[in-house]
Amino acid sequence: MFSIIRKYIAENTGILIRLDDIAENMNWDLMEKSESLFEKYGIKPVLGVVPCNKDSELLSYPKKNNFWEQIRIWKNKGWEITMHGYTHVYDKISKNEDYFGYGGGSEFCGHPLETQISRIKNGLQKFEEEKIKIRSFFAPNHTYDQNTFLALKNFGIKEIIDGYGLMPYTENDIKFIPQLFYKVFALPFGIQATQIHLNYWKQKDFYDFEKFIEKNSKKIITYDQALKKVNNNSLYKLIKVLTKIILKIKRSIKR
Ligand SMILES: [Zn+2]
Q1: What is the mean pLDDT of each run of 10 residues along the chain (255 residues)?
Q2: How are the residues of the chain apportioned to helix, strand and coil, as percentages rounded to the nearest 5?
Q3: Does the predicted model carry a pTM greater than 0.90?
Q4: What pLDDT score does 143 carry?
């Protein structure tokens, strides 16, 4: 009996390494270090690439000229390239009416469907010009509404790396891979994506990340492995609702 439980837990526990804000301007020093680390442990992360970065904060980082060539090299290594917004500029404030109830700045939530369609279209067009096929998306600051989903589906994008719960799930005909914590964290059970902002990291954060990878390298999964874990059973649905409530309370206390 215990061996069955152990096997179930092992098969349903995994960390997907998601790096956010991958753009021409970013902390390239830590990106190079991360690449060596991923190579060492055979990790294939998901890179959230901003196709046409106009975010002034992100633009303050050093620029790489052969950026798209670098993205193709990573893609050829089997790393997953996902679209992270279009310009990454927040031009709406969501007062918690966004789909996941995060609130705060948004590039998508609150905009008319036509605006969202045009942003998704322009972003995808950039990837197409650069010969990079995109199948998934995650919005800057976790903020989506129903129009975001419609706009994405309009272009055949039906996978989002965001959401609550302990297992990937389907909702609105879209597959969601949960992303619960700001800090890199290994849960004893469940499939989770990280959110890593190298731009905000100091050397010490990278050192901690190295230790984390060293300790948890066997739990780190690929994007396709995460997708295979989509599970819509009612227990996981309940857990999803509970994690949403808990994390929303936690965020409201912090404010
Ligand atoms: Zn971002």
Answers
A1: 90 97 98 98 98 98 97 98 98 90 95 98 98 98 97 98 96 96 90 97 97 96 97 92 91 77
A2: 45, 15, 40
A3: yes
A4: 97
- Per the structure block, which two tokens stand in for 189? 């059970």
User: Exposed, middle or buried by CB within 10 Å (0-12, 13-18, 19+), for 126?
Assistant: middle
The protein residues having their C-beta less than 5 angstroms from ligand 1 (an ion) are 20-21, 140
Cα–chain-centroid distance for residue 154? 20
Q: E strand or H helix at 174, and its extent?
A: strand 174-176
pLDDT of residue 255: 61
**Cα(240)–Cα(96) distance, rounded to whole angstroms?**
18
Query: How far, in Å, from the CA of 228 to the mean position of ligand 1?
Result: 25
Instruction: Judge contact between 28 and 205, C-beta under 8 A.
Output: no
Tokens encoding 211: 């230790």
pLDDT for residue 185: 86
pLDDT score recorded for residue 182: 86
pLDDT of residue 41: 98
- CA distances 145 to 7, 136, 232, Å, are 37, 16, 21
Looking at the chain, list the stretches that DSSP marks H as alpha helix, in order from N- to C-terminal side. Answer: 2-11, 28-41, 56-59, 67-76, 113-129, 146-154, 203-216, 223-227, 234-254
**CA 235 to centroid of ligand 1, rounded, Å:** 31
Distance CA 120, CA 148 (A): 9
Ligand 1 centroid distance, CA of 85 (Å) = 8
pLDDT at position 20:
98
Q: From residue 134, how far is each of 44, 84, 217 by CA, in Å?
A: 16, 11, 26
Running DSSP on this structure, what letter comes out for residue 62? Answer: P
